[in-house]
């Protein structure tokens, strides 16, 4: 009888094809000797809420939960019915687990103090990014950031627990609800992606140790706003066209970012005359994706500084976001500073 030895993957750890999210989290717990299991449980809570939102998303056309809710959120944006549903689902999951002391949500005006002074973590979340696309069956997502609280346990939360720079994140991730549902996250030890298997109700490791290509061939920007851009941004877009890059813009941040992360590309949402401070939110959109990008070998900047070095001043602070393959972001920064790009046509 011939017996072949088992070959581990390139990362050196023997993950089988059937590695579930729970099993993977258990295997990685030793990365967090200080966490005593709370961070692992928090990631499981987020995964559970994502499963529920996935179910609601898949039945949106049948259950009359698509379309506008009839109210606006703190951003002045019209809430969709699924925005409200996703916010409720994640709030419930995060509040019942016991690991979280406070939540910052795109859908809430103020910080949600859970009155759990023994909770070690603060979660900032966009429960449903791109939800206006649900009515036309386009991919949408959830984005989350996790921070350790700064103040001692047992005391009420303070502003320093909430207003932390992205470099202080202990974990971040996103869920993409599309042709398949994926959960991608990092805890500062690389980026891993898990695909949801509906019949088994489990996330399985499908994209271990994601590494972004250093250079890609995709640029993602809303060209309908070009009359509101600075000339330097127009110059970079002209450069992309000269390089014959493909223009791909879905309008769901998670979907655009996910594609570029895997295939190589750059996502740009610059300052405009209408939104001179940018449009994307720092605490629960830009920070999370920047942490993931940098762990995968990509780059994230506001055009002046690394996103992860920005210190928030207000809860729903906005920022320009330029994020993607390292060489493409480098070229963006060179061209917008009126320098020559780093590589020839």
UniProtKB/TrEMBL annotation:
<comment type="similarity">
    <text>Belongs to the FBPase class 1 family.</text>
</comment>
<keyword id="KW-0378">Hydrolase</keyword>
<feature type="binding site">
    <location>
        <position position="126"/>
    </location>
    <ligand>
        <name>Mg(2+) 1</name>
    </ligand>
</feature>
<dbReference type="InterPro" id="IPR028343">
    <property type="entry name" value="FBPtase"/>
</dbReference>
<keyword id="KW-0479">Metal-binding</keyword>
<feature type="binding site">
    <location>
        <position position="106"/>
    </location>
    <ligand>
        <name>Mg(2+) 1</name>
    </ligand>
</feature>
<feature type="binding site">
    <location>
        <position position="285"/>
    </location>
    <ligand>
        <name>Mg(2+) 2</name>
    </ligand>
</feature>
<dbReference type="Pfam" id="PF00316">
    <property type="entry name" value="FBPase"/>
</dbReference>
<keyword id="KW-0963">Cytoplasm</keyword>
<feature type="binding site">
    <location>
        <position position="279"/>
    </location>
    <ligand>
        <name>substrate</name>
    </ligand>
</feature>
<feature type="binding site">
    <location>
        <position position="128"/>
    </location>
    <ligand>
        <name>Mg(2+) 1</name>
    </ligand>
</feature>
<feature type="binding site">
    <location>
        <begin position="129"/>
        <end position="132"/>
    </location>
    <ligand>
        <name>substrate</name>
    </ligand>
</feature>
<dbReference type="InterPro" id="IPR000146">
    <property type="entry name" value="FBPase_class-1"/>
</dbReference>
<feature type="domain" description="Fructose-1-6-bisphosphatase class 1 C-terminal">
    <location>
        <begin position="213"/>
        <end position="335"/>
    </location>
</feature>
<feature type="binding site">
    <location>
        <position position="249"/>
    </location>
    <ligand>
        <name>substrate</name>
    </ligand>
</feature>
<feature type="binding site">
    <location>
        <position position="129"/>
    </location>
    <ligand>
        <name>Mg(2+) 2</name>
    </ligand>
</feature>
<feature type="binding site">
    <location>
        <position position="126"/>
    </location>
    <ligand>
        <name>Mg(2+) 2</name>
    </ligand>
</feature>
<protein>
    <recommendedName>
        <fullName>Fructose-1,6-bisphosphatase class 1</fullName>
        <ecNumber>3.1.3.11</ecNumber>
    </recommendedName>
</protein>
<keyword id="KW-0460">Magnesium</keyword>
<dbReference type="InterPro" id="IPR033391">
    <property type="entry name" value="FBPase_N"/>
</dbReference>
<comment type="pathway">
    <text>Carbohydrate biosynthesis.</text>
</comment>
<dbReference type="GO" id="GO:0042132">
    <property type="term" value="F:fructose 1,6-bisphosphate 1-phosphatase activity"/>
</dbReference>
<feature type="binding site">
    <location>
        <position position="222"/>
    </location>
    <ligand>
        <name>substrate</name>
    </ligand>
</feature>
<dbReference type="InterPro" id="IPR044015">
    <property type="entry name" value="FBPase_C_dom"/>
</dbReference>
<comment type="subunit">
    <text>Homotetramer.</text>
</comment>
<dbReference type="Pfam" id="PF18913">
    <property type="entry name" value="FBPase_C"/>
</dbReference>
<keyword id="KW-0119">Carbohydrate metabolism</keyword>
<feature type="domain" description="Fructose-1-6-bisphosphatase class I N-terminal">
    <location>
        <begin position="20"/>
        <end position="208"/>
    </location>
</feature>
């Amino acid at each position: 009888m011939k017996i072949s030895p088992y070959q581990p993957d390139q990362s050196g750890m023997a993950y089988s094809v059937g590695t579930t999210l729970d099993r993977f989290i258990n295997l990685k717990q030793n990365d967090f000797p200080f966490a005593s299991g709370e961070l692992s449980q928090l990631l499981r809570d987020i995964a559970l809420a994502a499963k529920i939102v996935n179910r609601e998303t898949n039945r949106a056309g049948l259950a009359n939960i698509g379309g506008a809710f009839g109210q606006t959120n703190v951003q002045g944006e019209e809430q969709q019915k699924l925005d409200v549903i996703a916010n409720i689902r994640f709030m419930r999951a995060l509040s019942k687990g016991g690991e979280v002391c406070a939540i910052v949500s795109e859908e809430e005006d103020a910080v949600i103090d859970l009155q759990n002074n023994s909770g070690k973590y603060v979660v900032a979340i966009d429960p449903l990014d791109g939800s206006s696309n649900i009515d036309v069956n386009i991919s949408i997502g959830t984005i989350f950031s996790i921070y350790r609280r700064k103040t001692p346990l047992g005391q009420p939360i303070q502003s320093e627990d909430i207003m932390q720079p992205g470099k202080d994140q202990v974990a971040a991730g996103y869920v993409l609800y599309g042709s398949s549902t994926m959960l991608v996250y990092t805890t500062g030890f690389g980026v891993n992606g898990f695909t949801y298997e509906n019949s088994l109700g489990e996330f399985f490791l499908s994209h271990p140790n994601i590494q972004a290509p250093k250079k890609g061939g995709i640029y993602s920007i809303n060209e309908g706003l070009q009359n509101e851009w600075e000339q330097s941004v127009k110059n970079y877009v002209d450069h992309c066209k000269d390089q014959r890059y493909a223009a791909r813009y879905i309008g769901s941040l998670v979907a655009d970012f996910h594609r570029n992360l895997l295939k190589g590309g750059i996502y740009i949402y610059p300052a405009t005359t209408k939104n001179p401070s940018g449009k994307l939110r720092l605490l629960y959109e830009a920070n999370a994706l920047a942490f993931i990008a940098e762990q995968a070998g990509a780059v994230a900047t506001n055009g002046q500084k690394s996103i992860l070095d920005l210190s928030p001043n207000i809860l729903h602070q906005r920022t320009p976001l330029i994020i993607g393959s390292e060489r493409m972001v480098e070229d963006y920064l060179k061209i917008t500073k009126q320098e020559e790009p780093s590589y020839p046509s």
